[in-house]
Amino acid sequence: MNKTRGAVKRPPSDTDSQDGTDEVLFWINKSGFPISESVWDRMFDHASKLHPGGESYINRIRTSKTSAAVSIPKAPIGGSSSDAERRVQVVQQYMCELQYNHTGTQFFDIKKYRPLNSQSESAKEMIKESLPIKCLEAVILGIYLTNGISGLERYPLSFRSVFGSKIHRHVVLVVCWNGLYGALGMSRREDLMHKPLHFTSLSDLVIDYIESYNQYHHKVNKLKIGFPVSHDPHSHEPIHWKGLAVNPCKMDKTELKQAVEKHAKDIRTWVRQAPFGTSYAPRSQATSYPTPSFSQTTPRVHKAADGNKSRPASMNGLERSCSRVSDAKGLKSTPHTPSNKLSFEMRI
Questions:
Q1: Residue 230 DSSP code
Q2: Residues 6+ apart with CB under 8 A from 56
Q3: Residues that are catalytic
Q4: pLDDT digits (tens, 9 = 90+) for 324-339
Q5: H or E element: which one contains 162?
């Protein structure tokens, strides 16, 4: 989940000056892999501002001559597509093994307007580098790893919440199979990431997320549900992020349920009208979906976020992420080795 002040402040390039970094909530690695020295330096500099130990703690990590070995999770590619529920669980487990990124630097530059074939390349890079990921990266990775699962529909669900004066944005991937709904995703909070395929309606899933937000005193003021994503990783169509947009604060639970269920019905109708297909994808001859009509779409909504604490009770802050990030020298000397071959620890 991304914390933002109105909007994520992204650096125009990876060679920017460090001046003014106190206003940046997180940086994005735009230089690709292997990660450049300037990006490593910027990551450590930003982490020193986030960690209570400050520069002394970060410098101790950077100058350490030894690093603990980190296991590299194996991506669940291939296998049987008949048991969708089991495959979804395996995909979520893999993303949890990658861990949530607390470093303050997003390692993969995800642009939402890119077509699916480009997003698939980003997902392959995440698997290769095996680095911690944030919520948007998890959606792209979840789409790629669930391609080809018979009868499984996937579409994005985005939130924007307010806590105090800060705006938070978050996004998960809704999965629908055999009339049941669940979600794949990553978050600092366990109940704001994945949901099992146990919900009998899309509105029940959405309300469960909103109630989880309420537990952390977050007010969800924007909610956005997209349309199903093609199962063809080579498709040139983009992901449709904005099918329905509503403000839950301006409607009661009954009105919210009606709006969400109307969109769910539109999705089912849309899927049935897809060529060569039944109500569920993938399709044997065509895995793309017809272009949706956005006549019911309300004003634009941006992606939302969750709280500040990490998911496991034994670790918080930057520790989970940074335990999987290698040192720059190791990465540069072996660019084809996953980036988490070595690790360092940061405790907050």
A1: P
A2: none
A3: 135, 170, 187
A4: 554 433 433 333 334 4
A5: strand 152-163
